[in-house]
Design goal:
The complex is a heterodimer of chains A (200) and B (227). Chain A has 200 residues and is mostly helical. Chain A has 6 helices and 2 strands, in the order αααααβαβ. Helix content of chain A is 46%, strand content 3%. Chain A has a two-stranded antiparallel sheet. In chain B, helix 5 packs across helix 6 and helix 10 packs across helix 11. Classes of the chains: A mainly alpha (200), B mainly alpha (227).
Chain lengths: 200, 227
């Protein structure tokens, strides 16, 4: 018998003896065992182990009978009755994935709504701002800003920046852009500075 | 001699296949309302959970009636002591009751419950092992006490059974759990994997190693060391 095929068959024997091998591979193993005495002996020893476990598991146990289980039933029910009643989870039985998907959709929708409300355009355009949070009785998170542009600069950088309308091509990143026209209330602070980025 | 198909072995004296309540048998002396609920195949486990969450007591008693025997045997085959197995089952049902609100109705009830039982049984086994850590003689003596055979079992058969449990005792809990669930209770590796919270491949590998190790320990006559 080919030793390599014996090694391959022996690797599958622990599954084969318990019927845990797919039929096609089990057929090949069975065919091998017909001709290989050593592998057959190995398989017989493994199968005896499985049978011993099955037999040992099915034998009666002293003191475990109908009255034992009736008593166990009583004990469990009494103990559980004394325990606090379980409360259904708030999710009401739907799978967690459904609630996660719903939460994601609501989050995106809320993002669009708030984003739309804070899109106020140019201060001089005369367009009334849409401020969504007002609907909830909250402070608006964004307001049109007609004052000086927020000057963003690196920490310690005191160089003057161009005023609104003075920017030239190449000024991007020097305070130009939406931050100059719409300023978040929470950011309205002349002292706001950004830490200088230090290359590694 | 060798298996002809991939059918699950079932021990005749044990509860039947998972989901087959007819062979499991209900405990005696149940109130008629509980017995009716437990026997009604049209009422699923999930429905019993729903009714329990709605504040009824009988549906939970019916769940206990459906599963207590299987739970006890699984626990007993892992821990090897009637008293400890009974404690494990009681604790498992109490934990189950307290956490019913977290039950995911999209998943199998028995997998969830067996996981609770198996976790508690393995914990109990580890505590027992650390408590009884001693000589081989002491261990075998303890097993003989814990798994005393009934009078109608022949002596030779009883000795062999004691040796089977002694060999199982030598195995690591993770291999022992798979052997108990597969070879004694007849669950498939696909059923075992979620109970032990491992992948199907891991469950199959543990079964492979467990059967090999069982054979090796048996042949060495308990003299070998755990691998």
């Amino acid at each position: 018998m080919n030793p390599s095929s014996c090694a391959a068959v022996r690797e599958t024997l622990p599954w084969f003896v318990g019927g845990d091998l797919e039929p096609r591979r089990a057929g090949a193993v069975r065919e091998h065992l017909v001709h290989c005495r050593l592998c057959r002996s190995e398989a017989a020893a493994l199968q005896q182990g499985v049978q011993r476990l099955q037999q040992a598991g099915s034998e009666p146990v002293a003191g475990v009978d109908d009255s034992f289980f009736a008593d166990l039933q009583r004990r469990i029910v009494d103990e559980v009755r004394a325990a606090e009643a379980p409360v259904a989870a708030a999710r009401g039985g739907a799978p967690a994935s459904v609630w996660l998907a719903l939460a994601a959709v609501l989050l995106v929708a809320a993002g669009f709504w708030v984003g739309r409300g804070s899109r106020v355009g140019d201060p001089g355009s005369g367009q009334a701002p849409m401020v969504a949070p007002a609907a909830f009785g909250l402070e608006p998170t964004a307001v049109p800003w007609s004052g000086d542009r927020l000057q963003m600069r690196w920490l310690g950088d005191e160089r003057p920046r161009p005023a609104v309308g003075d920017e030239r091509p190449g000024d991007e990143g020097q305070g130009a852009g939406m931050m100059g026209r719409t300023t978040l209330r929470t950011l309205v602070d002349d002292r706001m500075v950004l830490p200088r980025w230090q290359p590694r | 001699m060798f298996p002809q198909s991939a059918s699950s072995p079932r021990s005749p004296g044990l509860p039947g296949p998972v989901g087959d309540r007819s062979q499991a048998g209900l405990p005696a002396g149940l109130p008629s309302a509980v017995a009716a609920l437990a026997q009604d195949g049209g009422i699923s486990d999930a429905e019993l959970v729903r009714r329990t969450l709605a504040g009824q007591h009988d549906p939970f008693a019916a769940l206990v009636a459906r599963y207590q025997k299987r739970a006890f045997w699984i626990a007993w085959h892992v821990v090897g002591s009637v008293e400890d197995a009974r404690d494990v089952v009681q604790e498992a049902f109490v934990r189950l009751y307290r956490s019913l609100g977290k039950y995911d109705f999209a998943r199998s009830f028995y997998t969830w419950f067996y996981r609770i039982v198996m976790n508690l049984a393995i914990d109990s086994l580890r505590k027992l092992r650390s408590a009884r850590a001693g000589s081989l003689d002491e261990m075998l003596g303890g097993l003989a006490d814990g798994r005393a055979v009934t009078g109608d079992v022949p002596l030779q058969q009883g000795e062999e059974r004691g040796r089977v449990w002694a060999v199982l005792e030598r195995l690591d809990a993770k291999f022992r759990a798979v052997l108990v669930l597969r070879d004694i209770h007849g669950l498939s590796c696909r059923e075992i994997a979620p109970i032990l919270k491992v992948t199907h491949a891991t469950a199959r590998w543990r079964l492979h190693r467990g059967r090999q190790m069982f054979k090796q320990h048996w042949e060495r006559g308990l003299d070998g060391r755990e691998q």
